[in-house]
Every structure is written in structure tokens, then in C-alpha cells.
Amino acid sequence: MIKQFLLIAVWALFLSACTTVKKENKERVVITKTTLQDKIAGGWAGKMLGVAYGVPTEFKALGEIYEKPINWQPSAVIRSQWEDDIYVQLTFMETMDKYGRDAPAKKYQELLAKADYKLWHANVQARKNFHDSIFPPQSGHPDYNLHADDIDFQIEADYIGFMCPGMPQTINKMVDKIGHIMNYGEGVYGGAFIASLYAEAYMQSDILKIINKALLSIPIESDYSKIIQDVIAWYKQYPTDWRKTWRELESKWRPLNICEAGKKFNIDAKLNGAYIVLGLLYGEGDFDKTLEITTRCGQDSDCNPSNAAAVLGVVKGFSGLPTAYQEAVKQMGDSLFLHTSYSFNTAVKKTMGYAFEIISENEGEIMDTTVVVNIQKPVALPMEDAFPGITLSKRLTIDKEKQSEWNIRGAWTIDKENTALYSNKAGDEISLTFDGTGISIEGWWVKDGGKADIYVDGIWKRTIDCFFYYAEQEHRGINIYHILNLPQGNHTIRLVVKGEKRAESTGTIIGITGAVVYKTVP
User: Fold this and answer.
1) Which InterPro entries match (predicted)?
2) Predicted TM-score of the model (pTM)
């Protein structure tokens, strides 16, 4: 495969020289349709194999290396059928199938919001926002989504890269629209970086060059770019010891995960993105080694090997994967992913079709046995910072010993687990005075959830709706309201139960489980 690709590259240079007059300053590369399909299949297979490999370890190592044995058989790839790494982005592809690639972001959000599967973090907030009439790009904005920097778009932007060989500018146009459904800033950059890795993986096999090229698609001043550059520097410093690089990474970065501030759990896009790069560099192109290292880095250790393995899948092509892995994927080739109309085989076929469309639209050519790709120079996305200087001040819980921190008025009841206060009586209030620049109130999204008014420093801010029962899922201990970027100092937040509900709700309950207070540092 590598020899074949080198021959194609030589032909591409020749073709470029022949078309210089017609396509001035344009680099054009020829890829056989067979090679293109093989690489698309390799990307999807790598995605499936990686998530299946890592899922038993997911969030089992928090701020530490996962050192336990990893029991793996290729047949376990069947697990990928039930993973959000796959089915969420297939929902976006189904949106394209039904409404076209140029469908507005709101339509993509709608199909995500109405899909019959469970969601978490930035994705579930995007779902809630849709049902609360908050649409893109506000649905991913930090004012309405405390998960803006989370990993969600990073793990579901693969399809964009798979269908855009050598076209990072086209990738970023798609990223800008889809990524802001659920993310902002670093969370969007994660999707852009990952998708751009695939775009370059079609063109060459040198992992370091692929990474450096993908970095050009995101702002150099972003923390996401800086953390990846650090991993590269440490790799050069410790080329044979990935654990040293991992420790350097934890020591310098271990960035605050805003939505889970004060916890070891970290679903921040850039930290987990750094683990992907660490695994790719130290994996040295070996599929099994890359899977193991990326998984052992911990935290979201099914998503990260899934992305890393997909990069290698595009580089090597499906035919270049270990034979046992090829056979395992073929065995489930027609099995549908959860709540989608897609299987591995249909994902490859549809991606191929969209790749033809995108190549043609970008001054490329589709011929009988080959495609000519008009290579684009990367252009970085605009700089966005969701949470500038924001860090944890303190985390407050609800329990009998600490209720003195809260000012409670009315008939609030403590739950059996002694972890939440709840009320459904109109006029009941709970308030908290805090010293900082922001606060997140955590509580319940439930099928009998009701409405409440929020006041900050005596000023009404918003009516929140705590009903949530989609895909038979509820959330207890989730951000139900937040406000950031307040002036440093003492502030009071007050929640007043309205005793009202939306039509779908079976009650008017408001549940409070705690609060996170933030401060701002230079």
C-alpha cells in the first residue's frame, strides 16, 4: 500500500506540473478510487476498533496511568455498535442524507435532540437547549453550555475528515457549523484538529508531519495548540519513554475541566487530545502499540484510542490493518449502529459518495478509476476562548451538615441519599452568597421537573426549565444554571420555584444538589 501511494504521489506531482497554467498555484494529487475507499474503510474500522478496545477502561484511570491488564480480542469490535463515538456522528450523516450537506445547523441539532439514544455533557446540553429553543451557535456557547470545552465534538468530527481528503479549509467550514451546536473554543478546535489529521493522513504516512499539518487548522495561540506542541517537544526530549511525557503533561497542564471542576474526572477536549497525539507519536505507526499507549493514558480512554486508531486506519488503509482486525470488522459489516440506519459497510459507501461530491465542488475531478484532489492550504479557525482565566474557587454540596451555607425558605425536603434538596411549591426559595466571578448551580433534570426563576444580585436573569426525559434518560447532579464573568466580589444567587411546568412534564419539582463557585485569574 505504501509503495502504491508513493507511486500515486509521483504521478500527482507530474499532473500538477502539467496543469500549472490552468490551476495556477494549485497542488493537485491523484488517488485511485480503490485507495480512497480503502482509506475511508480503514478510518471507520480504526474508529470502531479503538473505541471497542478502550471502552472497558473508560474513566477507570483519573489523573493516573492505567496499569491493569487490557484483555482484548478483535471480536470485541462488536461493542462499537453501542458507542456514542459512532452513533452521534452517524446521526449527522443521516441529516446530510435527508436534508443535504448545506442543511442549517439547527436541523443537525434537531436530529441529535430527537434521536432515541442517551447523551451526556456538551451533547446532552445541546439536546436540552434545542427543547428550550436555544439553537446554534448559542446552543454551544459558554453562556448556554457549561460543557463548551468538553470532548464531545472531538469524538464525532471523524466523518468530516474522512470525506475531505487534503481539504482542511472545507473541513473547517463544516466544523464551524456543526461544532458550535454543542461546543465552543477548545471544544470546536478539538474537532477541527482531529478531522484535519485525517485530511493529511490521506496524503502521507509520517505521523509527526500529519500532526504538525493539522495544527495549522486551529489558532496557534489557543491552549489546544499549545498543549499539542508541548507533547511534541516532550516526545523529542523523551523519544523512548511515553510515561515521562505523560507525567510532564499532567504536571504542566491537567487543565481545569470547567463542568467537572474540583473532580479528578476530566473530559476536557485538549487534555484528551494530547493523549491522542501522545499515543500516535509513541505508537510509531504500530496499530496495537498505539491502541495500548493511548488507552493507558487514562480519562476518556475509549474515545482517545478510537481517534488515534482511526488516523492509522486512514494512513494504512483497511487492507493495511492486522488481518484479525479486518476479519472482525467484516463479520459485523452489515450490523446497524444503535438507533441509526448505518452499518460499517453503508458508512464507507456513503462517505465515499460525499467525498466525491466535496472533491468535485472544490475544483477536483472524478474520473473512471481515479480522483484528482485539489489540495487546500490550512487556514486556522478564528480564536475563541470559552472560559478566559476562569478557575475553581470551591465546590459546595447539599447535605444536613452543610445546609447552613444555603439560605433556605419554604418547604424544601432533603432526599433519602442526603444529597439533594427539592421542592415543588411555588414561592419556595434557595439562595447562596458567594465570593467569586461566577457560579454553577447543580441539580435535577427529571421527567417531573418544573420551572424556576433565577436572580443574581437581585436582578432576574432567566426562567429555567428542569424537565428532561428524552431517550428515557434523566440527569441528577447536572448544571441547571450558570453565570460567569461577574465582577470579582460578593454576589448572591437566588432560585425561586414557580410551581409551573411544560406540557410534557409530570410535575413541578426543582432539585438542587450543589454549586460550583469560580474565580478569575490573570
Assistant:
1) Ribosyl_crysJ1 (IPR005502), Ribosyl_crysJ1_sf (IPR036705)
2) 0.94
